[in-house]
């Protein structure tokens, strides 16, 4: 094969690849988590009429520093496949903490592929900052299905709270020492 033939075949292959169907990621759909503002829990989820890829963003902003104690997600594994589940900073789409792992149905601390239960926990978040919980995956069922979960959030104690705790412990130690000396 001469150089002209190779160049022609390469040009044809390149042109054909431009018109071949390309797999595209689903456009994110935004939902709001409103109860997280008051350091509660809020539900997240979505229902689908047919098969295909999805990308859901559950947005929220806290009014004070907070701590996500747990975020759980459940699917029927034969109907929905989750490819990622995590917390992201909205300003630059960066992952906050570690992404979720798929966990066992009976022991949520043990990773087990295919269980349909996903979890991340122990993430600190800053006040007045926009975040989103992203859920990406594929719907396998053509007859319709759904996934659901919950995010639990608590307030991070202020430094004054820690100071009062230490002061109280100091007073308890002083009283115990005084009682022992008497």
TrEMBL record:
Pfam families: PEP-CTERM
InterPro entries given in the database record: Ice-binding_C
Keywords tagged on the record: Signal
N-terminal signal peptide: 1-25
Domain Ice-binding protein C-terminal: 155-179
Top-level taxon of the source organism: Bacteria
Protein's recorded name: PEP-CTERM protein-sorting domain-containing protein
Originating species: Rugamonas rubra
